Amino acid sequence: MNTERVNFVLVMADQQRTDSLGCYGNCFVESPHVDALAERGTRFTHALTPWPVCTPARATMWTGVYPHAHGLIDNVYGIANAFETVAREKTTVFELLRRAGYRTAHIGKWHLGEQQPSFFDVWEQCFNSRRGHWIDGRQDGVYRPERQTDAAVAFLHETAGTGEPFILVQGYYPPHDPYTAPERFYAPYRGRGVPFAGYYAAVSALDHCTGRITAALAETGLAERTIVVYYADHGDTFLYRREGEHKFVCYDDAIRIPMVVAGPGVAPQAVCARPVGLQDLAPTLLDCAGLPVPDHMHGRSLRALLAGEPASGWRQTYYVQNVTHVSRIEQRCVRGERHKLIASTTGQHELYDLHSDPEEELDIFLTPRPDPGFERYRHIPDQSTVIAGLADAMQAHARELGDEVGVTLAADVRRAVQERSRSGAG
Question: What secondary structure, in 3-state letters, does 370-403 show?
Fold first, then answer.
């Protein structure tokens, strides 16, 4: 791989579930272009967001630090530039790439302010958030992602002859609610018992747009030196969780995201099960560009994993931060290969066995319970050892990141286990 001249095209969906793509096992969705990208590259099966909502996740992907460190822990509206005003970490990957001679371009949803930041050379059809999916406000009119894709294709054709390295971010707003797409994309879903047909129609519409971008890379001769990433900022619960939102929770339908990478230096037809996250995006871009990764970044370059090489000392668990939307409860989550611990400041901690209960519908924290009213839990063995191990992992993550909330919540979990042990329950 020519590390000095590699280009980057980042295609980011908003609120897209991992299980909404064919390459991730969905048996009814039509997503041929993203599926083909996965065939040409590496698909991460355990890619996650560090915070399941737009602004915190996006600030992390561009700074490489967790939300508690950059300070953007909720969506921003009505401000010019979040990095100039409210963010504590102000240096982004775009500035670092630009200093190294990269042309920086952003198209579409940004959700980090209303105005063009100085680190973008190209800023087209960009908006913060809450802009409709239809440019003229009519569902039979102009679909915003199609217009954004026109701009991306034009950018690639204009840039191809310059020899100038670039990073292009295509920020799509769908499949974020309200779930809408051009009529032609509804055919595989309507009348077939598929819930949320508009959501999957939007997934197929974005897949079509992604195909146009990858076709433009091939047409311009840029494909051989361009790394393409298809991913999302967070998932969507379809309002299934009790906090009553599409995200803002630590369940997998909100925190797991698709992440598919193809291009020079990326192993083809590869599947990586290591836990990776959006904090790893900025270090990866810098590393693949041949630039140093700043020591303050919490993420780690995926370059070795993308090449199919061993990555010594890679994390075994993934750490998520959250504040629920309705009750404003602070949470920290550790997700391992089999179990997930969600710790809350209310003391209502949760544990899920992701092998036997991947839907996370049966909370087994501190079971079995001695109360007669919880007789249905008697078949579940004691989970104290599992919880203690996850609490240790949570504390280790929190201390490494300097997250005092996580340190406190890990200690609260430990106390809950110890108190139950002293009581002799179960």
Answer: CCHHHHHHCCCCCCHHHHHHHHHHHHHHHHHHCC
